[in-house]
Design goal:
Layout (H helix, E strand, L loop, with lengths): L6 E2 L8 H4 L19 H22 L7 H21 L10 H14 L7 H23 L4 H13 L10 E5 L5 H16 L3 E6 L10 H11 L5 E2 L2 E2 L3 E5 L12 E2 H7 L4 E5 L1 H6 L9 E7 L3 H7 L6 E6 L5
Parallel strand pairs: 2-3, 2-8, 3-6, 8-9
Antiparallel strand pairs: 1-7, 4-5, 9-10
Helix pairs in contact: 2-3, 3-4, 5-7, 6-7
Pfam family, one: ARMT1-like_dom
Protein name: Damage-control phosphatase ARMT1-like metal-binding domain-containing protein
Keywords: Hydrolase, Manganese, Metal-binding, Nickel
């Protein structure tokens, strides 16, 4: 199914979400701040995005699908840098004040206007191919562990740092993150174990490319390559595995705007997992759901580590249990 152009709220957000849901975890400013003057937090994050411009320009320059990529990559760098510098002069320019969602969206907008659709495509394809070649070995190592609890612990150790929770969920929605080892060697073996236990698993992937995040079409292709002739994942039936287009086009996500497809499929889920720093830490860390939820990701920005009172490359595993009353 293709995602609808009309976006809807994620149905498992705690109601009323309008009054208490804010996608961005870190407040860049407060109501008392001068609307015409950037806050120290805004400046810090603008500088972070400024520092990333050269690497994005380099990726764009090597995009063989775009004519005159070298010239257009330079135009991207100039335009996006100008936007970021404008925010330092006037936080309300370009639809501001800025937050992580707006800064990501403007970057993608400039790239797409210049014809750059997926500047990380080559590296994603390479990483996916490597990870697919290792998938069977990873699954066999896990399957060799006879004790069910220890097998699950081994599966989730890299993702959940040994924090075991009740895996008796009937339906789980997982917002996936990166291509390569992340999705193929991390999430998919875990999803396979859930399928083996009778859980229906919905993997929600981006509609459009954004940095190295796996997209809906790419995930469909990956699953197709991993399935055998019996449509199984290493002996496990996949009839309860659903791949959904989240409707998202950024490395972060605002859960008041997801595809109608995902909203329909996820309406009865009893576990939501938001994986990756963008979806589970920089956004939605404090989101409240009507079911159990887990936010998981590695802290890759010093600004995020400082906000959380932790260290760079710390892992965040935040499990919220909804108690039935």
């Amino acid at each position: 199914m293709e995602s609808s152009s009309e976006m809807v709220p994620f149905p498992l957000l705690m109601i009323p979400f309008e009054s208490n849901y804010r996608a961005c975890t870190i407040p860049y400013r407060f109501p008392s701040d001068n609307p015409r003057k950037p806050t120290p937090t805004e400046i810090a994050w603008i500088d972070l995005f400024l520092n990333s411009v050269p690497s994005f320009r380099q990726r764009a320059e090597s995009d063989s699908t775009v004519a005159d990529a070298l010239i257009k990559a330079e135009k991207f760098a100039q335009r996006y840098t100008e936007i970021l510098e404008d925010f330092k002069k006037d936080p309300e320019s370009h639809g501001g004040p800025p937050d992580c969602i707006l800064l990501c969206r403007l970057r993608e907008q400039v790239l797409r206007e210049l014809g750059f659709i997926d500047i990380f495509k080559k590296v994603k394809d390479e990483e996916n191919a490597k990870a697919i070649s290792l998938f069977e070995d990873v699954v066999r190592l896990n399957d060799a562990i006879e004790d069910g609890g220890k097998r699950v612990e081994n599966l989730v150790r890299g993702i959940f740092a040994g924090n075991i929770f009740d895996l008796g969920s009937a339906q789980a929605v997982i917002f996936v993150d990166n291509s390569g080892a992340d999705i193929i060697l991390g999430i998919l073996p875990f999803a396979r174990e859930l399928l083996r236990r009778g859980t229906q698993v919905i993997l929600a992937a981006n509609d459009l490319p954004s940095i190295n995040d796996v997209t809906y079409p790419e995930l469909l292709e990956i699953i197709l390559k991993l399935k055998d002739e019996n449509r199984q994942l290493m002996g496990v039936d996949t009839s309860n595995l659903l791949i959904a287009n989240s409707g998202n086009d950024l490395p972060v996500i605002d859960l008041t705007r997801v595809s109608q497809e995902l909203a329909y499929l996820a309406s009865d889920a009893d576990l939501v997992i938001l994986e990756g720093m963008g979806r589970g830490i920089e956004t939605n860390l404090y989101a409240q759901f009507r079911c159990d939820s887990l936010m998981i990701g590695m802290v890759k920005h010093p600004e995020v580590a400082q906000f959380l009172g932790g260290r760079l490359y710390d892992c965040v595993f935040k499990y919220n249990e909804v108690l039935s009353g």
